[in-house]
C-alpha cells in the first residue's frame, strides 16, 4: 500500500508548483512523508544560496501532503507556517525534506518538518497548521 500511496500523492502533485520547482516525494508512512529537490541555478538568490522560498515551498508541500494523506477526502489548506532557517544549501546540493503529523483534530492538523542536506546537516526546522474541510 505504501508504494501505491506514494504514486497517488505524486500524481496529485503533478503540474503543481512543487512539481515545477523539481520537488519529488520519496517515501510515505502512516503519519510521515519525505521528499527532495536537487538545487539548480533557478533556485538560488543573488548571494548564490537557495532562496528561502524554496525551503518554504518544499516544507509546506511535504508537511501539507502528510496532512492530506491523513485526511484524503478533505480539502487541506495551510493556516500557519513557521520556519527556522538554520543553514544555506548551494547549487547542485540535494535538499531532503520530511513532514510529520504531530496532532490532529476533526478540522485542524499540526505538523513538524525539517530539511537536511545530503551530509545530514540540518538546514531548517518548521511547524505548520492545516485546516481540513471535508465536502
Automatic annotation (TrEMBL):
PANTHER family attached to this UniProt entry: ACYL-COENZYME A THIOESTERASE 13 (PTHR21660:SF1), THIOESTERASE SUPERFAMILY MEMBER-RELATED (PTHR21660)
Protein name: Thioesterase domain-containing protein
SUPFAM superfamilies: Thioesterase/thiol ester dehydrase-isomerase
The family this protein is said to belong to: Belongs to the thioesterase PaaI family.
Thioesterase domain: residues covered: 47-123
Keyword Hydrolase in record: yes
CDD domains: PaaI_thioesterase
Annotated InterPro entries: ACOT13, HotDog_dom_sf, PAAI_dom, Thioestr_dom
Annotated GO MF terms: fatty acyl-CoA hydrolase activity
Gene3D superfamilies per record: Hotdog Thioesterase
UniProt superkingdom: Bacteria
Keywords of this entry: Hydrolase
NCBIfam families xref list: unchar_dom_1
Amino acid at each position: 500500500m505504501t508504494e501505491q500511496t506514494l504514486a497517488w500523492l505524486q500524481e496529485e502533485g503533478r503540474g503543481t508548483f512543487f512539481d515545477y520547482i523539481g520537488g519529488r516525494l520519496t517515501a510515505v508512512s502512516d503519519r510521515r512523508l519525505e521528499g527532495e529537490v536537487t538545487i539548480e541555478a533557478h533556485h538560488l538568490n543573488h548571494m548564490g544560496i537557495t532562496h528561502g522560498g524554496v525551503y518554504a515551498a518544499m516544507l509546506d508541500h511535504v508537511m501539507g501532503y502528510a496532512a492530506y494523506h491523513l485526511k484524503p477526502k478533505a480539502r487541506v489548506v495551510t493556516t500557519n507556517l513557521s520556519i527556522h532557517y538554520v543553514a544555506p544549501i548551494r547549487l547542485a546540493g540535494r535538499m531532503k525534506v520530511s513532514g510529520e503529523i504531530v496532532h490532529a483534530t476533526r478540522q485542524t492538523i499540526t505538523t513538524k518538518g525539517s530539511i537536511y542536506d545530503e551530509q545530514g546537516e540540518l538546514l531548517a526546522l518548521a511547524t505548520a497548521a492545516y485546516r481540513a474541510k471535508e465536502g
